[in-house]
Amino acid sequence: MKQFCKKISDVLKTIFGYGIMTVLFAGGLTFFGYLAALIIGGDVAAVICSVIYNNIIPVIIYVSVILVLLGLVAMYLNGEVALTPEKKQAHKHEGEM
């Protein structure tokens, strides 16, 4: 069972990594959309900004939330503990008390 959870965790971490990278890239591209709107100006700029704000940004946010949840599930399946106030010391060095 532990090996199965490890394999699922590895797949979810891969999906998380590539997904977050893609979402961050898409978020960065919105900057260039706003920059183009600033340069163009007028009614076309208003349309560009409203399309970015109403259609693209919500998708980026929803996908990011889903990917973060996948990342947390992957961490817990792997046995890692996240979102805890304290982390216990994993290993003590020999000779230390």
Residue ranges: pLDDT <50 for 5 or more in a row? none
DSSP strand (E) fraction? under 5%
Shape: elongated
| Fraction of residues in H or I helices | over 70%
As a whole number of angstroms, the C-alpha radius of gyration is 21 Å
Structural class: mainly alpha
Summed up, the helix count is 2
> How many strand units?
0
Straight-line distance between termini: 34 Å
Main beta sheet: none
| N to C succession of SSEs | HH
Mean pLDDT: 86
Overview of this protein structure:
By secondary structure, the protein is an all-alpha fold. It is built from two helices and no strands. α1 packs antiparallel against α2. It is elongated, with a radius of gyration of 21 Å.
Give the topology, please.
Elements: H1 2-40, H2 42-77
Helix pairs in contact: 1-2
What characteristics describe this protein?
elongated, mainly alpha, single chain, 97 residues
Summarize the structure.
With 97 residues, the protein is mainly alpha-helical.
